[in-house]
Each structure stands twice: as C-alpha cells, then as structure tokens.
Specification:
3 domains, de novo design (two linked rop proteins), 4-stranded parallel sheet, 11 strands, Rossmann fold, 440 residues, 40% helix, Ubiquitin-like (UB roll)
Length: 440
Amino acid sequence: MADRPVIVLAGADEHDLTKLAAYRAVGGYDALAKARGMEPQAVIDELVASNLRGRGGAFFSTGKKASFIPADSPKPTYLTVNADESEPGTFKDREIMLRVPHRLLEGCLITAHAIRSRHVFIYIRGEYLEEFEVLRAALDEARAEKLLGDVTVVLHRGAGAYICGEETGLLESLEGKRGQPRSKPPFPAIQGLYASPTLINNVETMATVPPIIAMGGAKYAKIGAPPDSTGTRLFCVSGNIERGGNYELPMGMTIREVLFDLAGGVPGGRKLKALIPGGSSMPILTADEIDVPLEHDALRALDTFLGAAALIAIDDRCCMVQLGLRVAQFYMHESCGKCTPCREGTRWMVQILEKIEAGHAEQSELDLLLDVCDRILGHCLCPLGDAAAMPIASYVTKFRDEFQAHVDQGGCPFKGSSTLEHVFAPVNQHSHHPTVEVPA
C-alpha cells in the first residue's frame, strides 16, 4: 500500500498544534474570546445560521439542538462530548484529538457559553490512550492559562462498549451505571446527565464550532452543498483503497472523486465492487452508484446515509456473505441485550449467515434473513439494532446472486480466496465462553 496522505485539518500547518503556543499563533482561542463577548443566544443563532449538522451520524441541526437547552433551568446544564468513536471504518475523531486537541477544547468552551453551562464532560473511548494523553496535556495547558474561565472540563474514559456511543447509553455510563440506552422521552435536553438538561455532541461537531464563530454562520453556510449539507467534513477512507486516511473536504464531492482522484483508487488493478458510505452500519452502494455527491439528500435518494462519513471500499475479491457475517457478528457482540428485537435478532442474523456461508442453508432462509431484518428495524430502543439490520438487508438485496450461489453450490463460491477469509470479528477473537457449561 502506498504511503498514507498528509491529513490536513483547517488551520493546521507545520506547527505542532497540540501545543497551546502554536495553536494560539494561528488564531487559536480567538473565536472563544469573540464568543464570550456575545450573548449566549447570539452564539446559538450563529450555529443555526451555519446549518451545521451533527458530524456523529444523526445529522441533526447543531444550533437547533443547542436551542432546546432551557436558558432558565433551575438545575445545572451539562455539555457532553461523544468521543467514544467505535463504528467500524471511523477514525476521524481520534485525528482531531491527536492533532488539534485545542480546537476541540475551544469548541467545547464556546458551546458551554452558548448553553450557559459550567460543566463539560468529554467521554473518550477507553482504547484511545494516546489520544487521551494528548487531550489531557492540552487541557492542562488551557487550564494553566486560565482559558477555561468558570468551566470545569472532565475527561472520562469509557470501558470499551460500543453501545456507549449511543447518547443515552453514554449518559448512563457517565453516571456509573451499565451502558444501556434509556427510553425516550424524556430527551437529554430536558432530562439528561444527573436528570438535568444536557447537550450531547460529537468531537468533529465541537471542533467545527470555532471556525463558524470566527467567520460567521452565514459565510460558513455557503461552503459545501447548501442548504442542508454545509461546510467541510472529515471523510475516513479505508478498505481496498490505495491511499486510505482522513480527508477534509467540502461536502458535495462525489464518491468517485474521493476514491479515485484523491485516494488513488483500488490497488492491484482490481475492480471496485461496492462502497459503504458512512461506516459499517450504513446500507451499501454498488460500484455503479458512486457518482453520487457526498451529501445527505443525494445519498438518501439511494436509500443510504452519509452517517459518520466513513467510506469503506470493497473490491471484487470480497465475499459479500462473509462481509455480512462479520458485520452482523460485530453488532451481535456489541448489543447490550436490553431490548428483545436487537438481542435475539442479531443472533438470528449471525446464525443464518453462518449457515449460508457454510453451504447448509435452505432456499427459504434467504428470505428468512430479510424477514429477521424487518423485525429488527424500527423496533429497538436505540439505533444499534437498525445499524445491524440495515446493512445486511442491503447486501442481500443488492448482491442476491452471490447469496444464491452459496445456496446453489453448497458453499462459498470464492473457495477460500476472499479477502475476508481470515479476518475475524471480535466475537471470534475471545477465548472465554459466553455461557457456563455445567457437567451432566
């Protein structure tokens, strides 16, 4: 594989922007000073004008979300940052924390001012040890320079559960409980952390706030693909691609431009077979659907989503049944088990896919697999069940011939040559038994 590209974030240059002095030399914390000179509502108005949408996958208006926090609450308000990046195919938030941690902190402090909060929690994925240390050093610098004002910023390391990336599961974990989703309503803006109004945003969303305040929301709204997909995004490019990495690009570029003009295309002269546009939970696109712009409405027209903007390229050596099996195994392993459709449905999907891959499936089980997906979709407490079912249903629908070949030939037509042959899902990497076997 060729060398990874230089990853460029807005405002970054040859300086080490993990250091406060270097960050301030390129205008760092100027936006914070500007924001603190504004009324909180005026800051929210700028976010609304920018039409910044959440960069964690939900794509909800950041300004409107902030406006839901009551300005006159008798309880303290909280800002919680979701840095529990765990979606397969995503690695953008870790780059922000590693390279421009002060950008994240500045965004947090501006947003805290906007919602009148003195309490910020950054919930960081437990495996991100280096990122945690870099962020902690940056926080120490900001605190020593008295940039925090009256705001307390707490870094909280997660314990390795994907479900804690779901906002209410994150809140449960922050409170010291088992990470499981809450029933909604009430929504976090009214009753979130410690039953108080809480705003939850993704790392990239927070890191985008400073340039919006610096340039103004109306100017930011002209970047990208207005009116709904404004600004730039960090696109994670991985899979069977020549130059994988993070690319900061204006929204609206086509998938083909990103994959072939910037990322070098599929290596080894192979053909592109499919593309996952937003992380493993997104429905798949075929190779003839990649001329679509990377923006919300265009992808929705193809029954998929931009999600976390993680593009995973798949070449012609990949067995789609094996891909589906590994995706289903991941979500089965990460299901918290609180709701029946997800707990049982993900296991059904894995069992059926295992039978198809082994060549033991009957014809009716292809439709049974789709039926199981239908019984999961829209019936769970949180999006994890949908995240498991949507991609699998899309694989079966768009690559039905390949699934059919497994049934007709009594096994995988790739006969051991698939690129996923020796790639194991987390559930197959554990040596412990999920249940205790009691001797008869």
